[in-house]
């Protein structure tokens, strides 16, 4: 791997982690915010009603959690498994994006809230239904998850894995332990260190 390719891979890794984490956070935060507002009409007049993202659709927040788990799992698997997990992350991002945009046009939760507020099953909504920016914030979170998945599909093969890093970290430890066991009889400090460890410094020397 050339230095330019290595730098591009590291940049893609950082971008995927950032976009995935931010995207999941946006989708999760948006679920608890007001997505639409209107009024409930009944005999005495009208009362303001609103619907939160979680009332409209639970898909963006649920899929964001799955996507976040997939982002972490990318580093726990290798080769084909990594591509499968990266594909799952990509699908989650696309699904969060689509479900949030569909939810922005859905008035069923708002109508249900109007009926609950007025106490009338057939209570209608006011003429105006206002959609806030939150469903589009959730959609933006889905887009960021989608970007993270695409980056993982394109550059993930060059990213480190948890199992691989642990294996490489153990090798120097074994090498240092092996070096520590060798005692040079001509070096007094080695003899003293061996005695401190409870070893016989003359063992194995001619």
UniProtKB/TrEMBL annotation:
Name this polypeptide is given: TIGR02234 family membrane protein
Sorted UniProt keywords: Membrane, Signal, Transmembrane, Transmembrane helix
Superkingdom field: Bacteria
Region of interest called Disordered, as start-end residue ranges on this chain: 162-206
Transmembrane parts of this sequence: 58-77, 84-104, 133-153
InterPro entries on file: Trp_biosyn_TM_oprn/chp, Trp_synth-assoc_CHP
First and last residue of the signal peptide: 1-27
Record's compositionally biased regions (Basic and acidic residues): 167-206
Coiled-coil ranges per UniProt: none
